[in-house]
Design goal:
- It is built from 15 helices and 11 strands.
- It has 392 residues and is an alpha/beta fold.
- The protein has one domain: Luciferase-like domain (TIM Barrel).
- An 8-stranded parallel barrel has the order 1-2-3-4-7-8-9-11, surrounded by 8 helices.
- Helix 6 runs parallel beside helix 7 and helix 7 packs across helix 8.
- The structure holds flavin mononucleotide.
- Flavin mononucleotide binds next to strand 3 and helix 7.
């Protein structure tokens, strides 16, 4: 029995929102209506999806933006995922909450304690997204230079092993590894979720993919092609490595950007307006340059090919068109094996409202999701925490 909808949800296609702890993924557009994120918008979006039965609210982790000579560029604006997640956890009732941690920025003892704390605040709804890091200047601020690529994953594996041991061990333990020395390691309280929260990882390189398949419960992937065959193979490759190499089953999730309008033409026009005509080219250039240099994921020519997608929503899969078109795309992704999808919009509140009114019913008709009963009834029925959760 778990409260974490990432594990317990009956829905064939799980849903979540991504990057609401900063300016969404619309960090590369100059249109004035792009969200100036602040805490109240984080809160309103989290509550809107909590009430609608989504499974996930996922922040991104960012210590510094992309533009070397422009430190106050919006790409560097991100509320700290841990303290942010604690607030979101207290303000919501059923949705799954994520934190994202750069292993190099945080000692495993601190990570184990803070995640256990948020797991208590959320009553067992936390998932930990672990990141090896790739944006060199943000790690240099910690005096922790970005390691050689495969070493990042060795470090991350030892880091994660320690976090899990701290979550689980009833006794003190010593650990002497390649990266950490821990004497009398111990952490209390243990997380609410037995064995600790599920793990997410978004490695895209071959090494990153191996890591995700070995250690993560949820592999968070990019889908650079829209061709259903490529999509199916992209998802299957993770599930296959997990099963055949590591004897495990993993969920595979992907991120998207949504432009939903009454006609396809209106949606295409708005996409062109914010992601092409008003693209922040310096910002996209910097992102492509860094990703090509520091990640072994997508090659530079693929990154260049999906340039407008970076501007539209951090390289996410496009969901652009009418409610019917978007629902059909989601059906395709689900049929291709995707377990969960995260959404971003230029304007999240407007986007969530349109999506919940027009697309959710279509997903229910298609059998991808069950109707979600009003939360008040749910909590009354199960006698859980309603009294301490001021969600009105
Ligand atoms: C969907 C997605 C979300 C990611 N979120 C973050 C993030 O919040 N912070 C971060 O520093 N890196 C993030 N990354 C980067 C990856 O975790 C990983 O570090 C990067 O892809 C480089 O690793 P690789 O070369 O093994 O692919 C994300 C990647 C993907 C595909």
């Amino acid at each position: 029995m778990t409260n974490n909808p990432i594990i317990s949800s009956p829905n064939k296609l799980k849903l979540g929102i991504f990057c609401t702890n900063g300016r969404g993924t619309a960090q590369h557009t100059l249109v004035p209506e792009a969200n100036q994120q602040d805490w109240s918008l984080s809160l309103l979006t989290a509550r809107a999806v909590d009430e609608a039965g989504y499974e996930a609210v996922v922040p991104f982790a960012r210590w510094k933006g992309y533009l070397k000579d422009n430190p106050d560029h919006v790409s560097g604006y991100a509320l700290d995922p841990f303290t942010w997640a604690a607030g979101i956890a207290q303000a919501t009732r059923q949705v799954g909450i994520f934190v994202t941690s750069h292993a190099a920025s945080m000692h495993p003892i601190l990570a184990a304690k803070q995640t256990a704390t948020i797991d208590h605040i959320s009553n067992g709804r936390l998932t930990l997204n672990v990141v090896g890091g790739w944006n060199r200047p943000e790690l240099e601020m910690f005096g922790a230079p970005l390691r050689e690529h495969s070493q990042r994953y060795e470090h991350l594996a030892e880091w994660l092993g320690l976090v899990k041991r701290l979550w689980r061990s009833p006794d003190e333990f010593d650990h002497h590894g390649d990266f950490f020395d821990v004497v009398g390691g111990f952490s209390l309280p243990k997380p609410v979720q037995a064995g600790g929260p599920p793990i997410m990882n978004a490695g895209t390189s071959d090494r990153g993919r191996q890591f995700a398949c070995e250690h993560a419960d949820v592999c968070f992937i990019g889908l650079p092609s829209e061709d259903p065959k490529d999509v199916r193979e992209g998802i299957a490759s993770y599930k296959r490595i997990a099963r055949e190499t590591f004897g495990r089953d993993v969920q595979v999730w992907a991120h998207t950007f949504v432009v939903q309008r009454d006609t396809q033409q209106e949606a295409d026009d708005y996409l062109e307006h914010y992601a092409v005509r008003h693209q922040d080219r310096r910002s996209v250039d910097a992102l492509i340059e860094k990703t090509a240099q520091e990640s072994n994921g997508l090659p530079r020519e693929v990154l260049e090919r999906v340039r407008d997608r970076f501007a539209a929503g951090a390289g996410g899969f496009p969901l652009v068109g009418t409610a019917e078109h978007i629902a059909a795309k989601l059906e395709m992704l689900s049929a291709a094996g995707l377990d969960g999808v995260l959404f971003t919009w230029v304007d999240y509140l407007d986007g969530i409202d349109r999506f919940n009114r027009q697309v959710l019913p279509l997903l229910e008709q298609a059998g991808l999701r069950e109707p979600f009963p009003p939360l008040a009834n749910r909590w009354d029925r199960h006698g859980a925490q309603a009294a301490v959760l001021p969600c009105g």
